[in-house]
Design a protein that fits this description.
Blueprint lengths: L2 H14 L4 E2 L2 H6 L6 H8 L9 E3 L4 H14 L3 E4 L16 E4 L6 E5 L4 E5 L4 H9 L3 E2 L12 H7 L6 H4 L2 H4 E7 L5 E3 L12 H5 L8 E8 L1 E2 L3 E9 L2 H13 L6 E5 L1 H12 L6 E9 L1 H17 L3 E4 H9 L11 H4 L2 E4 L2 E4 H18 L5 E7 L6 E10 L6 H21 L18 H5 L3 H11 L16
Parallel strand pairs: 2-4, 3-4
Antiparallel strand pairs: 1-2, 5-6, 6-10, 7-11, 8-9, 8-10, 12-14, 12-15, 13-14, 13-18, 16-19, 17-19, 18-19
Length: 478
């Protein structure tokens, strides 16, 4: 490290304290990856990871502000980081500079039992935030798959979603107000309530911006009472289209399902059998309701009638409850030698009911036939539902991937291009709740069309020196 770099390190130490700045190789390598299979594969094969020059651990919003002012002065790139559990390479410091590790800003600031809100710093792990309010009888009803390893800031930055989103919405639906440090260091607050006729809603600007427009340092979220009842039931359909149509009817009739999760026939055979031990073939559905007992009784009665009329075979509560209790096992990968031999990826999209199955079947055909040389399989589930459509969450697995890292990256890139372009062509989004990051940025102009110019101009206005997570979300690099 040269004199200039050492001087920057000393200035950072003056802001956050010597103990909260590191340039040690081991610390730099910790923040050089996320859970993206490609970034893991790159490092596991002995390739050199991208590394920052410094990792900084702020403890206050004011410290974040001063760090960004310093970075602007020297035009040093800054990459905010939460739990590091993203899978789009969004938190990778591809231009070096500063990784702003938010893990020491992890306080629950206030639990407001009158307005049913909780205010917390964004470095807090989601599981810790949920536990803190559970002890007082409340819940966020926000249970993402990475519940135990992701931070609140990561969900806000990537517009994340949880298992119960079909009833309670995604993370942006929980936000009341936020504190944000702009790229130039100003500390700002969005309006105290999100429902107003007072100009554009700034919460919507920063939620989903992936650290490119500033750093969200704390947020006030809606809470709910812990439900009297929380029930789950499983059904099996002969075909995926029947299961999708049953879910559609439950949603458009607004029966208040907190969970609808449908697995295609292959996902049922592979994942559902592995986790739940269910041997039957078909398309597996889990549906859940929560709230007062009398309400849940009525909702289930009406929904089950629809499901059975569409051919759903009632498997009972036991597999539904088992699914809920084991739902995180569908997420956490088996980091063992067997798993290291394959390469997998996920890419989710959201589309209307009219288009979602077209996207699914076209992706499946294109990926399995186009990449059969590497014994690639494709399967999917549909996990977050709206009254207009649902999300397709497909997984592709290369059972015999090439061992050459460059060739692997090239093939992986092609698979993502094929799958994403099919989604866009049929009215789907580039992504639904994992974010864009580095991996999907090239599709933003295609998905937004001329509207992407609006985002580019906002980025330029707020971040004139392009220090905040450059090269992500399709914005220009350095």
């Amino acid at each position: 490290m040269g004199y200039f770099e050492r001087m920057i390190c000393y200035e950072l130490e003056e802001i956050v304290g010597q103990e909260n700045v590191t340039d040690q190789l081991a610390d730099l390598e910790v923040v050089s990856t996320d859970v993206c299979s490609i970034s893991r594969f790159w490092i596991d094969r002995g390739e050199e990871p991208v590394k920052p020059d410094y990792v900084v651990f702020p403890k206050t919003t004011e410290q974040v502000s001063e760090v960004l002012k310093l970075a602007n002065n020297y035009k040093i790139p800054v990459t905010p980081r939460g739990g590091g559990a993203g899978d789009t390479c969004g938190a990778l410091p591809i231009y070096g500079g500063i990784v702003l590790d938010m893990s020491k800003m992890d306080r629950v600031i206030k639990v407001d039992e009158n307005n049913l809100t909780v205010t917390a710093e964004t470095g807090i792990l989601q599981c810790d935030l949920e536990d803190a309010i559970n002890r007082k009888g409340y819940t966020l009803n926000f249970f993402p798959a990475s519940h135990y390893c992701s931070a609140l800031g990561g969900f806000l930055a990537n517009r994340g979603s949880g298992t119960l989103s079909s009833k309670y919405g995604k993370i942006e639906n929980l936000v009341v107000t936020m504190e944000v440090v702009l790229p130039t260091g100003e500390i700002t607050h969005t309006l105290p309530v999100p429902d107003h006729s007072t100009g554009p809603e700034l919460n919507k600007l920063f939620v989903g911006s992936e650290g490119t427009l500033g750093v969200i340092t704390n947020a006030t979220l809606k809470m709910f009472y812990l439900p009297e009842e929380r029930r789950f039931n499983a059904f099996l359909f002969k075909s995926l289209p029947d299961a999708i149509d049953a879910g559609r009817l439950v949603m458009v009739n607004r029966l208040g399902a907190s969970v609808i999760r449908v697995y295609d026939e292959i996902d049922t055979k592979v994942m559902v059998k592995k986790v739940l031990g269910i041997e039957k073939e078909g398309s597996f559905m889990v549906i859940g309701f929560d709230g007062p007992t009398e309400m849940v009784d009525l909702q289930e009665k009406l929904a089950f009638k629809i499901i059975k009329e569409k051919g759903g075979q009632d498997l009972g509560r036991e597999p539904g409850n088992t699914w809920w209790q084991n739902r995180f096992k569908f997420y956490y990968p088996p980091y063992n030698l067997e798993a290291a031999r394959v390469v997998h990826g996920v890419f989710d999209t959201c589309a209307t009911f009219e288009n979602i199955l077209t996207i699914f079947y076209e992706q499946k055909k294109a990926i399995e036939e186009g990449f059969k040389e590497w014994e690639t399989t494709y399967m999917g589930h549909f996990s977050h539902w709206y009254d207009y459509g649902t999300i397709l969450y497909p997984t592709f697995i290369m059972h015999k991937p090439p061992q050459d890292v460059n060739e692997l990256l090239r093939i992986n890139h092609r698979i993502w291009s094929v799958g994403t372009e099919i989604a866009i062509r049929h009215g789907g989004t580039v992504n639904e709740h994992h974010g864009i990051g580095l991996r999907l940025g090239r599709f933003m102009k295609e998905n937004y069309g001329p509207g992407f110019v609006i985002l580019q101009r906002i980025k330029k206005a707020l971040d004139p020196n392009n220090i905040m997570n450059p090269g992500k979300m399709g914005f220009e690099g350095r």
